[in-house]
Amino acid sequence: MQTDPGLSLPDTEHRALARSGPLRPFILLARLDRPIGWWLLFWPCAWGVALAGAAFARFDLILWFLLGSIAMRGAGCVYNDIVDRDLDAQVARTRRRPLPSGQVSVRAAWAWLLILCGIGLVVLVQLPLPAALVALASLVPVAAYPFMKRITWWPQLWLGLVFSWGALVGWAAIARGLGGPALWLYAGAILWVTGYDTIYALQDLEDDALAGIKSSARRLGRHVRAGIALWYFAALACWSVALWLVRPDPLAPVALAPAALHLGWQVSTLRAGDPADALLKFRSNRFAGLLVFLACVTVGTGAG
Fold first, then answer.
1. Of residues 225, 220, 222, 202, the one with CA closest to residue 277
2. Are 290 and 275 in contact (CB under 8 A)?
3. For 131-147, b where at least 16 C-beta lie within 10 A, e where not — what string?
4. SS3 of 147, please?
């Protein structure tokens, strides 16, 4: 019996979506069956709103950010797969994706990309002008990301620049501009993304080496756990500064204690040679994002 290429993807979370008939290749192309990506894109947006003190007053805006994260994460995946289709064909985990496996044509993928961007545009017009301008400024680093793995050992750091941008947009949507707390929140998010995406890259070490794909996981080698620990520690330090700037109280950074414990668990129990464990730890960052959000709610709401 022939194996369904969509169902054989190792990181599919919602297999019902992977069985969605003729729409299945497009669902897989946008990773709608794997919500972890849009959760990780969404959380920095929600942090920015919460730290600016509007988690409850502008909960509608947080929901718009959630829709935008789903659409734009999907668009980013489609664009990434269009650019990377030849490399994806050389890696065991990615060769069954719709483009390298021939389930979707490049032309159809571009059309699907435009549809997703259209949804993102609907969200964009809900934002105040300063936030919309900040959001539009992300297009250049987003477009450059798929090429980073070809030219640098640190594409995870570039992903951090892209996936953390929502922290700036969320803050600007409430404060009508940027400021110190937003920049420190963004810096911490960059380091967090670099850490968790290094964990994700542990799944593909052998295939990446054969295909010549660069990653921080390959570059760090046996020091990968120490590198992730350092990025997470620095992320917590940056977030602590952001919280303190909003509420100059020595107890403000204590709100990050649950997130610190969770990130410490990730590092201390990580089995670098086990792809399944790497995927588990990577996915657990949706919970880490929630814990940071709760810290931002606590400090941002109390600062008023």
1. 202
2. no
3. bbebbeebeeebeebbe
4. helix
At residue 20, what is the residue type? S
The DSSP string of 275-304 is: HHHHHHHHHTHHHHHHHHHHHHHHHHHHH-
> Residue 101 corresponds to which tokens in the numbers above?
């496996």
Q: Give pTM, 2 decimals.
A: 0.87
CB atoms within 10 A of CB 232: 24
Kindly report the number of other CB atoms within 10 A of residue 100's CB atom: 19
Q: Cα torsion at 157, 158, 159, 161 (round to 10°)?
A: 100
What type of residue sits at position 259?
A
| pLDDT tens-digit readout, 106-164 | 898 999 999 999 999 999 999 999 999 999 999 899 888 878 877 888 889 899 999 99
Is 248 within the bounds of a domain?
yes
Of the chain, the end-to-end C-alpha distance in Å amounts to 63
Query: Of 116, 196, 132, 131, which Cα lies nearest the Cα of 163?
Result: 196
> Is 8 inside any structural domain?
no
The CATH number assigned to the domain holding 202 equals: 1.10.357.140
Q: How many domains does the chain have?
A: 1
Which amino acid is present at 110?
W
- Determine, yes or no, domain membership for 119: yes
